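Internal tracking record. Fields below are filled automatically when a chain is submitted to the structure queue. Please do not edit lines marked as system-generated. If the sequence contains nonstandard residues, flag them in the REMARKS field before resubmitting.
Queue: standard
Priority: normal
Entity type: single polypeptide chain
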Amino acid sequence: MNADHRIATRLVQAGLQRTPFGETSEALFLTSGFTYSSAEEAEAAFDGTKPHYQYSRFGNPTVTMLEDRLAAVERAEACRVTATGMAAIHAAMLSHLKTGDRVVASRALFGSCHWIVSTLLPRYGIETEFVDGHDLGQWRAAFERPATMVLVESPSNPMLDVIDLRAVCAMAHAAGALVVVDNVFATPLLQQPLTLGADIVVYSCTKHIDGQGRALGGAVLGNKEWIEGTLQPFIRNTGPSLSPFNAWLLLKGLETLALRVEAGCQRAAIVAEFLSQQSQIGRVLYPTRKDHPQHELAMSQMSDGGTLVTFELKGGKAAAFEFMNAFRLIAISNNLGDSKSLATHPATTTHMRIGAEERARLGITDGVIRLSVGLEDSADICEDLARGIAAIGSSAPRRQAAE
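SYSTEM-GENERATED OUTPUT FOLLOWS
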């Protein structure tokens, strides 16, 4: 396909490799290994003198199509996919870091990412430091000493904090650091961190890229030299490989990503406006709203607000639980980016293990709800939210959707 094709076209056509059978859908290669015409060909495959698939842990034609398509969408030189989003984060960091290195990370990270930085890396003698991501002064202070890597989410999970990626990348590079951006909330449609100065972009493909609750997957994108020279040997030898079947599902998910994200953004903006009018809700966070703390910055980096809305109920945990337990349409789930609307209570789920003190620093109170807005009619979503608000104080048991 033409490299100048627009992103919606790349989402459907990029990376396509048809077999001699001329299939329209991407071929699914459910095989663990591959054969060779001779012992000499096997030797050439393993010494790199002849391109040939060897073992699906190293590479697979269906997986390659997904990697090539994601790279084309992100305008990256190369991509490697992994079994999960956390495998992508882990591989991106551990393939590059060694004892004595230093990592600076935004404090606002998904719980498992926070654990890697706060707990896992120090076990290997890697120094780590957290900063408040929206505070450029803290970044400047952190980069007064050399650093090896920076890890950020923007917008962050779950409070939708937005980081000035251009400024942070410039400071990080001056300090010698490689910048890794978790772009899962924005998706490649709404924000492309490589154009803002980032070196590496990671995704949980489980979220919007699949978008239908079917498959786990992750992706790491960057320049060809780093992907092939640093990341690929780590993935090859540690084995966080993506199954061909999940790669095929993610390829099909990419075909509708633009349509789903656009529709989700439209609905999320309507939902955020509805929530802002409810007296039981203290604050609503959504990047396109002018009352978002980093609204102008968000709109300078993103083309739309995304499918996530975060808000805080005034009544704390009790109100939050009563609110969610009254849903008939919205599901309680810690996943996001799905075609179905999903709500979670971060303090008792995704961010439980970072501790109350750290949650308080991030503004994750017991009243905070993270809502992943799906593709249902926005009026129906708002009606379900209204049902939840009406239930606050009632302690009514949750009704099942089938009722």
